[in-house]
Amino acid sequence: MKDSNDKSKGKGITVKKAEDFNEWYSQLVQKAELADLRYNVKGFVCYLPWSTITIKKMYNIYETILEKKGHLPLVMPSVIPERNFQIEADHVEGFAPQVFWITKYGEKDIEEKLALRPTSETALYQMYSYWVRSYNDLPFKRYQSCQVWRAEATAATKPFFRAREFHWIEAHNVFRTLEDAEAQILEDMETTYEAIGERFAIPSIFFERPQWDKFPGAMKTFAADALMGSGKVLQLPSTHLIGTNFSEAFNVKFKDEDGQEKLGFITCYGPAISRIYGAMIALHGDDSGMIIPWELAPLQIVIVPIIFKGKENAVLSKVKDIKKQLKKYSIKIDDRTHISNGEKFAEWELKGVPLRIEIGPKDIEKKQVVLVNRLTKEKEFTSLDSLKEKIDEIAETYTNNLKKRNTVDFEKSIDDAETLENAKESISNGKIVRCGFCSLEKTAFPCAEIIEKEIGAEVRGSRVKGETKTFKKCIVCNKPATKTVYLAKSY
Ligand SMILES: [Zn+2]
Description:
Blueprint: H1 8-11, H2 21-31, E1 35-36, E2 46-47, H3 49-68, E3 72-73, E4 79-81, H4 82-85, H5 89-95, E5 100-105, E6 108-116, H6 121-131, E7 140-149, E8 165-175, H7 178-199, E9 205-208, E10 220-227, E11 233-243, H8 245-250, E12 253-255, E13 261-263, E14 265-269, H9 273-284, E15 301-305, H10 312-325, E16 331-333, H11 341-350, E17 355-359, H12 361-365, E18 368-373, E19 379-383, H13 387-412, E20 414-416, H14 420-428, E21 432-437, H15 445-455, E22 458-463, E23 483-488
Parallel strand pairs: 3-7, 15-16, 15-17, 20-21
Antiparallel strand pairs: 1-2, 4-6, 5-6, 7-8, 8-14, 9-10, 9-22, 10-11, 11-14, 12-13, 17-18, 18-19, 21-23, 22-23
Helix pairs in contact: 3-7
């Protein structure tokens, strides 16, 4: 799109988010300079500085929360010998099709091929058998921040959401009893709400996943789904009650108080930070571009001096003063002279800088500035004397206002359905469907298959806390409903 009168138009997003979400997202990623998809290996993406700065902040927030709750950091090798990989049967079956293998170094074949970790259970638990000796070592809580590699079929159709290499945190814990392990699952859910809900402003619901959709090798899987602007849900962190399957396979045992050797109960939790970033920009953004929570923004405030010939010095020196006053924030003066003010405004809106300050010669005379809030798009005058207080107030409320805006939408997007016909209609209207279901055990899988085939949605599972609704019958087979489940399309 070209418009010779306003060059900024061609640089902005040309579709509406509500009308064409996929195109909106892909333009956002490109035009806000978040990722470059031209790297010449399929499914591997370059993250550019604007996304990387925020992703690092997200890591930092998450790591701080985990460490406060007693997880210690470590760094594991990124290669796993084939032997380890084959110790736990369900696990190998679940991940085998996605593993990248290293088979050579230089010209030589490697004797035992090495997997690039798709996840680290089989690397860590072998070492846990050395590190966990006694009940005094428990609970044993560790995490690492790292990349993992999975050869997903749909790679790179959506940068950040899915790619063949992604960036995450994985926490792996060993406990003395099943109850302790179950308590950790609840703690992981709290951590999710604290990081993703409070700090990143993304509302989500935790579901217990059906048995046919759990983590390979786990007893139970719980996962948070967030609703994207497109009517599809995206799975955010999941936490798995692994139980003793892996302890048995990898010999993770401890000597209990009574002198007996016992198997440790394991849980693991995997927030995929790059994917959460994708969810965040998809959920928060609007037709003008990105919206970023205050503390995650690479740049929090941009000052645009409105310059007229002959009055440059007065304005520029005032602007430097203001910057100094606000130095606790990430702040920048945009004094580029080769582009118009309109272009600057559009660019920083596209990139989601939370606050813009405009100041020209007239404002200086009146001892005021103009503030423009990215979230509300409201413009207001503030006197220079109270500027600092005003901005502190915006900094404090910005993310919370964003969260409030997002929370309203979630519950509104759930429809109850008694028949497949109703469910189909709701799904096609971009809703999540709540309905009765016979069971979440593997025996109910045929009913889930019918839902997938007939209405193109998945059974996401049953809500972990706060379910208020019950149904008499399974929406597919009409047997008595033992569960209230949610159906949705997903990424
Ligand atoms: Zn059924």
